[in-house]
Amino acid sequence: MAEKTSKTSTWNVTHLPDLTGRTAVVTGANSGIGLTAADALARAGAHVVFAVRDPERGRGAAASVNGSTEVRRLDLADLSSVREFAEAWQGRPLSLLINNAGVMMLPRQRTRDGFEMQFGTNHLGHFALTNLLFTLELQRRLAESGSAVRALAAHPGYAATNLQSHVGNPVMRAFMKFGNRFFAQDDKAGALPTLYAAVQDLPGAGYVGPDGLGEMRGAPTLVGRSAAASDPAAARRLWTVSEELTGVSFPLGAASGVEAGRA
Predict the structure, then answer these.
(1) FRET label pair with 81: which of 99, 178, 190, 218, CA 20 to 30 Å apart?
(2) CA distance 197 to 37
């Protein structure tokens, strides 16, 4: 599925390989980077599932995409919704899971399960979704292939999307609106690290971001992590706590031999 390019500094959507026959789930695909990534994947031949909180908005976004799509409801701030989404998947083949949806700097709120909204949505919701989907997917594929699933992360740099419009503080919201207009790159450029991580032949646990100054903008490339983000003890603690909070565990034994999907 992956394709190598000689110059990562010039990588763009024209380098996407043929994804015909592949299925991709993109959370938060109804706007911003999620919609841009979904559109690029669909144009490359993938069947793209818009996993969105508001199906009506999702259908409107999917209608703007040139390719094969479907819309499914997923509210990452409600673990029962996450479980319903995974159960309805029913073991269908899944090549790409792009955990894109997120919230930022909201007024203090709680998820349906009582977690702080940003942590509950951005981390715990996606943690549960990934483990639930790939529990079914890994077990289905276990007898079919010996290759490993690879999980990668990506960040868009400073990209102008509607994420900043939900900031609770009006002064900060105005500041971000100014920054979006004069300093940020657009959502098409912001989606490139996500797409690059999804289809390029990169090492598992790789981290992709823009190659410009401060990783704020530029072409996608592998980038480094902070010491805190590379701390294996902290990662194990977060994983354990996430399993306890969501009630979802990952079947490590099943991960030893599966065909390449990406989380």
Answers:
(1) 190
(2) 11
| Token couple for 162 | 């509607």
In angstroms, rounded to a whole number, what is the distance separating the alpha carbons of residues 237 and 239?
5
pLDDT digits (tens, 9 = 90+) for 25-44: 999 999 999 999 999 999 99
Alpha helices in the chain (DSSP H): 32-43, 55-63, 79-89, 117-118, 126-141, 170-182, 187-199, 232-246
The domains found in the chain, sorted by start residue, are 20-249 (3.40.50.720)
Q: Which amino acid is at 69?
A: T
Please give the single-letter amino acid code of residue 158.
Y
Residue with tokens 């409801």: 73
**Residue 176's closest CA among 102, 108, 104?**
104
* pLDDT tens for each residue of 187-232: 999 999 999 999 999 988 889 999 999 999 999 999 998 898 889 8
| Alpha carbon separation from 154 to 99, 103, 140, 221 (Å, rounded) | 10, 16, 27, 10
